[in-house]
């Protein structure tokens, strides 16, 4: 089971980074934050292609669903991202279900969910189903209210799954006097990290200083944290995507 679970994740990770597509006309990407466009332009250059090359990592998918003006691109990205490694992983899921059933039987449980809950707070699968049922109902009502607002505001008859983030972003920009593309400047990595360090120094008197030493990846930096001149620990943030990481890492 552990091996199959690991293989399941690896299949998604491999598919997310091996499958890519190119957009040459940037017209539909005019609202995209510049720092993201730069990444995809550099990827295209590395692959000897013109325009912008996208994979199916979480950042890419979310950005296209939020900022791309082309509804067909949003639709294609949505369906492709939700079916990564579908064929191979379908067989894995079926095998895992079979093994879970056998494991529960070996350990004298009626079903695998009972075995899983033996070490958790919930006592029965029915309790969890009821919790999910209530949460889903609350979420559905809130989501439907948002969808109705967007449909009325943009004079559209339907808001598809792949269109929701796009219309919501435009609605907020037009009604809350905010420009998400402008706000993106303040989310720049070095700026955010510097702000965090400044707050920690002011509140906790903990100071962070960068060390010029080699690490296992160029994006990974090492900082030493000190308190009143006394070294406390090393901080080694590894925030950026690379092909060796698990999906979402």
Short description:
By secondary structure, the protein is mostly helical.
List keywords for this structure.
10 helices, mainly alpha, 249 residues, globular, two-stranded antiparallel sheet, three-stranded antiparallel sheet
Query: How many E-type strands?
Result: 5
- Low-confidence sequence ranges: none
What about the largest sheet? 3 strands, antiparallel
Q: SSE string, helix = H, strand = E?
A: HEHEHHHHHHHHEEE
- State Rg: 23 Å
Could you describe the 3D structure shown?
- The chain has 249 residues and is mainly alpha-helical.
- It is 56% helix and 10% strand.
- The protein is built from ten helices and five strands.
- A three-stranded antiparallel beta sheet has the order 3-4-5. A two-stranded antiparallel ribbon has the order 1-2.
- A hairpin with a 2-residue loop joins strand 4 and strand 5.
- The protein is globular and about 55 Å long.
- The model has no long low-confidence stretch (mean pLDDT 90).
């Amino acid at each position: 089971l552990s091996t199959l679970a690991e293989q399941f994740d690896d299949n998604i990770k491999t598919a997310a980074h091996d499958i890519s597509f190119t957009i040459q006309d940037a017209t539909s990407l005019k609202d995209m934050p510049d720092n993201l466009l730069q990444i995809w332009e550099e990827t295209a250059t590395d692959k000897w292609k013109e325009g912008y090359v996208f994979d199916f990592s979480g950042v890419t998918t979310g950005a296209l669903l939020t900022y791309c003006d082309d509804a067909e691109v949003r639709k294609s990205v949505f369906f492709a991202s939700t079916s990564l490694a579908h064929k191979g992983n379908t067989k894995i899921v079926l095998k895992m279900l079979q093994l879970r059933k056998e494991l529960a039987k070996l350990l004298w449980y009626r079903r695998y969910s009972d075995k899983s809950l033996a070490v958790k707070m919930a006592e029965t699968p029915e309790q969890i189903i009821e919790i999910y049922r209530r949460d889903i109902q609350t979420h559905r009502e809130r989501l439907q209210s948002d969808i109705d607002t967007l449909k009325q505001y943009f004079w559209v008859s339907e808001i598809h799954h792949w269109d929701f983030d796009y219309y919501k972003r435009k609605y907020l920009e037009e009604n809350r006097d905010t420009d998400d593309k402008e706000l993106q400047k303040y989310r720049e990595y070095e700026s955010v990290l510097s702000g965090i360090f400044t707050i920690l120094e002011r509140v906790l008197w903990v100071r962070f200083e960068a060390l010029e030493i080699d690490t296992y990846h160029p994006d990974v930096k090492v900082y030493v944290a000190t308190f009143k001149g006394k070294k406390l620990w090393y901080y080694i943030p590894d925030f950026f995507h690379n092909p060796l990481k698990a999906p979402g890492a």
